[in-house]
Structure formats: structure tokens, C-alpha cells
Amino acid sequence: MTSNAVIFGVSILMVLSLAISGLSQNQERKTSGVGGGSGKKVTSKVKVKKPTIRKKGDDEIIGVRIKTDPGVQRINAEIMQAELAFPGSKRPLPNPNKKKKRGNQEKAENPDAPEVSQWPLRKRERQAPENITTEAHTLGSTFDAATLNDTASFPPDSNGAAGPTQYIGFQNGRIRSFNKTTGVADGVMNLNPDVFYASVISPGGSFTTDPQIRYDRFTSRWFLLMIDVPPVNNFNRVVLAVSDAASNGTITAGTVWTFFQFQADAANFCDYQSLGVDVNALYVGCNMFSTTAFVGTNGYVIQKSSVLGAGPMFVTNFPGLVATPAGAGPFSPRGVDNYDLGATEGYFVGPDNATFSTLMFRRVSNPGTGSPTISANISLTVPTTTFPNPAQHLGNTGGTNGRLDTLDDRLFQAM
């Protein structure tokens, strides 16, 4: 739903695990048929209420449990077969102006932000080091994961991840797997996400958007997450697919996927959702919109162990990470990826919704249990930031009006 232009026009802030640690404090199996048509339609109920405060210790905020149903299991080969009979996506025609954005609110400046281009500052004698390369990695192979003809989606909201033997490209309109060594499509996955998630998306003609994918080295599982867009209701679902243990990280025709879903809110639309994964949990952050405007942000913590089998998954909602349209807190909250096997806390992070030059963290305690809690805002001042200018690009035939919309100061990913 939001433009990939943010990748080109915004300096993407990657939050390192060292910075994260510095902020820390001392069933029943169900199977659907091909195409989802004969599968059980899953419906979740959600009650949204204001979080309460535990008057103890650090006054951690207690979340709201969302009731969910057991997962729906489907074999990869059956889903690929359903792709052959798919009549086409219900995704609307490309419309670059149809995306969820905040209003043109002005944010206050952070008076403590240093006006420098990098941090920490270099010593003067080290400002012009010799023999420094700007290339972070040596390029191996390069290939197209998908094209506009493949996806019929604009913007594609491109995402992807590498596992032990495969790279899986994940875009609006297309999931495709590749041999990681050769870059050649292996034919194991080549399908529309609307087909992939057919068993769990909202009924009545919904389509999927905003792909997020992770390969989890702790469990050797793939996690693929999207939101759906219902044709009538403003509220929508978050949908999740998890690969099986038997595949051991390599997707084959026989891989069994388990699909889960939960309704993000009783009235508002979850947009630009994130996915962070650590040893304990999955972290999903959302910008929330009414039918007309941005209303705040939410965070959702999914107990990882609950989605490694048939479910149901345990989801805890923390509404109001940003409680009002102009309030403080993490905008576009990113769930944080953490590769530390010994991690005991999780995090959400985003630029402060109220001020420039400030990152806002929320620390999640007990994320691997059925009763996680979350901290109040933890602020970190960074060098001065502002909203980016529209970005020029190759192929622009529209002059000033043809530049890429860089949206705002949101983050793309955090680890």
C-alpha cells in the first residue's frame, strides 16, 4: 500500500543489536483443499480496549490478547496447482496515488540533536582515510526476481530473504523462489500471494499487500507475512504463513505451510506493517487509519512457539504506541530482528511521531510467554533529520511531477 520509493528517497536507518542491548534494563490439525475453496474459512474476534498499567516495577503496559483460530495447513504443490486455475488478482489497477499517508503535519525540532552528518564524530586526523571503499559487499550474481508484468502491482513493495539453499523474492502480486547459488528460478514457488493466502484472507474479494519475509535460523522456518485489503470493511487482517519443520529450511513441492490470521483492529485499517523475528517472538507494527485519516500506531507480539505447530497462535495487541494523530511514540513501528540466541527482550522502533531527530523504542518483556508486557516510550536523540525531498529517477518523463514520492521519515527495517 505504500511506495517503495521510500527505499530510494530516505536514508534507511538500521538499528544495530548493540544499540538495542544498550537500551535494555537489569491441538487440532485442519487441512484445506486446493485453492482454499474447500478449506475452512477462518474468522477471528477481537476486542480492542485501552491497555492498563501494572503499578509495579517499571510500570510495564499489559497488552490485550486477540483470540485466534487454529491454523490451516496446505501442501506447497497443491497451492502451485491452484495457481494454474487462478482467474487473476482482485488487486486494483496500478494507482501510485492510492496509499496510506499521514496528513502534512509539521513535527517539532529536537533541540538536543547535533547538526552533523554522522555519529560518532571522527577525529580530525581520521576524516580523510585512504584506501577506503564504498562497496559494502562484493557482487556475486544478479537477477530479476519479478517484473511489473509478473506482479501487475505498482508499487511492488519488494521484499526477499535468503535461506540455506534458496532466495525467495516476495512482492505484491508474486512469490518466486530461486536457487541461491545460481540465481535461477527453481520452480518450487511461483504464484500470486492472493492464491497463497486464499484460505485465510477476508472473504468477499480481498487482495493482499505489503509483503514481509524472514528466514529464521533458530527454527529453520520461513515466515511470510502480509495484510489484506477488504473491498468494503475498513478493518483488515494480518495473514501469516509458516513453513514446516520437515523441510529444514528448503522449500520443496512437499513442504506443508500453516496459515494463520488475526484481525488487527475492530474499526481501523492496519497499514505498512512490519515483521521482526527473534528467538522468542514475532513483532508486527502497524500504522492505523480510520476511513479518512491516520489515528495512531499499534504493536502486536506473536509468541513464536504458538505458530510452529497447528496453532492457534497467541497474539498480544499493544494499541496506542502512538495514541493520537500528533502524539509522541514510534511512527511506522518496526519489529526488530535480533539474532542473539540469548535474547530475553524484544523491541519496536520508529521515528518519533511528534519530533524530528528522535528514535522511539518500546521494549517488550517476556515476549516468549503468553503474557508479554511493553515499556513506555524510550527516546534516543540522533543527528538532525527531516522529511526527504522527492527523488529523481531514470525514466522520469514527467519532470517535477514525475519524481518518486519519498513519503516521510519512516524506517524500512530494523535489526
How many β-strands, per DSSP?
23
- Could you say which overall geometry the principal axes of the C-alpha atoms support? globular
Rounded to the nearest angstrom, the distance between the terminal CA atoms is 23 Å
Question: Biggest sheet, open or closed, and with what strands and sense?
Answer: 7 strands, antiparallel
The number of helices is 5
> Which structural category do the helix and sheet elements fall into?
mainly beta
- Range of strand content: 25-35%
Question: Roughly how much helix do the residues carry, as a percent range?
Answer: under 10%
Mean pLDDT value: 83
Order of helices and strands: HHEEEEEHHEEEEHEEEEEEEEEEEEEE
The low-confidence runs, each spanning 5 or more residues with pLDDT under 50, are 1-57, 93-98
Rg (CA only): 21 Å
Distinctive features:
single chain; 415 residues; 7-stranded antiparallel sheet; 6-stranded mixed sheet; 23 strands
